[in-house]
Write a structure and sequence with these properties.
heterodimer, A: 44 residues, little secondary structure, elongated, B: 175 residues, alpha+beta, 5-stranded mixed sheet, 5 helices
């Protein structure tokens, strides 16, 4: 059986550490200079 | 009305000028920039905003920041020490207990408080302990595996008043 470098082997999640430490930024975590917030106002 | 709050977060003292009606979650995320604590439902249902207050898991979306002055607050940013991941963080990464990662900070903090009280838990006890933390990726099996896999001896008790795990202890000081 051919040994592959990646196939068939566990790989660490690329963003695992970021997410486990709270460092990872979700969209809602981002703050930019002069950032504005919008909200949908829908008819009832 | 704004008020100067003195908060003790992750071993550091912070002074924040914030409106008195702000929740701890809002002050952590908006004033201190600690966005590791997540706003999920904002209603005390999902557990994503869990932080440790004097060692007990509490829902920061239900607690006014003013009421947490003089208490020791631990967020997910305060767990790793000197660049070294906490054993629970390591276990979550290694066991594949993280998918989208939104519930992860709350899960890990709830688990930490729980393991301090229950060093050798059964699977059922772990499931009960994290019942107040929802994972919408539904990755519970690996989360439970990760928590059970942590060798309790590998992390020391830290801070005062280490609390119990589980959702029942989380709403204690809501104002």
């Amino acid at each position: 059986v051919k040994e592959y470098e990646i196939i068939g082997k566990p790989l660490p999640r690329i963003d695992g550490i970021e997410k486990a430490t709270g460092e990872g930024k979700f969209t809602v975590d981002m703050v930019l200079p002069g950032m504005l917030h919008g909200k949908f106002l829908r008819s009832p | 009305m704004k008020h100067i709050l003195k908060l003790h977060v992750n071993g550091e003292e912070f002074e924040v000028l914030a409106a008195t009606h702000k929740t701890l979650l809002e002050v952590l995320r908006e004033d201190l920039g600690l966005t590791g604590t997540k706003r999920g439902c904002d209603l005390g249902t999902c557990g994503a905003c869990t932080v440790l207050i004097d060692g007990k898991p509490q829902l920061s979306c239900l607690i006014l920041a003013v009421s947490t002055q003089g208490k020791e607050i631990t967020t997910i940013e305060g767990l790793a020490q000197n660049g070294e991941l906490h054993p629970l963080q390591k276990a979550f990464v290694e066991k594949g207990a993280i998918q989208c990662g939104f519930c992860t900070p709350g899960m890990i903090l709830t688990a930490k408080a729980f393991l301090n009280e229950h060093p050798h838990p059964s699977e059922a006890e772990v499931r009960q302990a994290i019942s107040g933390n929802l994972c919408r990726c539904t990755g519970y099996v690996k989360i439970v595996e990760a928590i059970i896999s942590v060798d309790r001896e590998s992390f020391p008790l830290k801070g005062r008043g280490q609390g119990r795990g589980g959702r029942h202890s989380k709403t204690g000081t809501a104002q």
